[in-house]
């Protein structure tokens, strides 16, 4: 019997932090990066599970909400956002299946490539993410 893991709002919120850190690591977030994130949330993340927020909305939309909030705040540190995600991943490692890790890397890479290809700072952060996701 296969038991499907139930994600939490906090899971999706931390993904929003991670994807913001990827997009903003170079000091700016382009509209293309945000559009790519929204497309991937709709096409891939909504299918992960049926978790909903307090308003009955699919919890996966928390990825967009947190990303947009962080982008509007503009004063938040991308390193802190990335570190928050890594700390969450370490404390909730049971949620990070092989499939989820693959989807995280796919989404992060797509965001990085969305605007004029990938730059050095994005490449470095993606490599760090890849390494962190390989740690059980």
Q: Indicate the radius of gyration in whole angstroms.
A: 14 Å
What string, H for helix and E for strand, traces the elements in order?
HHHHHH
Overall pLDDT score: 91
What is the percentage of strand-forming residues? Answer: under 5%
Assembly state: single chain
Helix percent band: 55-70%
Quote the distance from N terminus to C terminus.
23 Å
Shape: globular
Supply the number of helical segments.
Answer: 6
Largest sheet: none
Question: Low-confidence spans: pLDDT under 50, at least 5 residues?
Answer: none
Characteristics:
mainly alpha, 136 residues, single chain
Written overview of the protein:
The chain has helices at residues 9-24, 31-43, 61-73, 78-91, 98-113, 120-134. The protein is mainly alpha-helical. It has one domain. Helix 1 runs antiparallel to helix 4, helix 2 (31-43) runs antiparallel to helix 5 and helix 5 packs antiparallel against helix 6. The chain is globular. The chain starts with 8 loop residues before the first helix and ends with a helix. The mean pLDDT is 91.
Brief description of this entry?
By secondary structure, the chain is mostly helical. The chain is 64% helix and 0% strand.
Describe the protein's topology.
Elements: H1 9-24, H2 31-43, H3 61-73, H4 78-91, H5 98-113, H6 120-134
Helix pairs in contact: 1-3, 1-4, 1-5, 2-3, 2-5, 5-6
């Amino acid at each position: 019997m296969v038991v499907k893991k139930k994600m939490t709002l906090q899971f999706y919120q931390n993904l929003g932090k991670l994807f913001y850190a990827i997009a903003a690591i170079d000091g700016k977030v382009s509209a293309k990066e945000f559009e790519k994130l929204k497309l991937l949330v709709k096409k891939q993340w909504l299918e992960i599970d049926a978790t909903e927020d307090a308003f009955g909305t699919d919890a996966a939309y928390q990825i967009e909400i947190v990303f947009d909030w962080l982008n509007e705040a503009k004063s938040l540190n991308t390193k802190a956002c990335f570190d928050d995600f890594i700390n969450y991943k370490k404390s909730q490692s049971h949620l990070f299946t092989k499939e989820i890790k693959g989807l995280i890397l796919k989404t992060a890479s797509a965001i990085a490539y969305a605007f004029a290809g990938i730059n050095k700072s994005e490449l470095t952060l993606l490599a760090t993410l890849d390494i962190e996701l390989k740690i059980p």
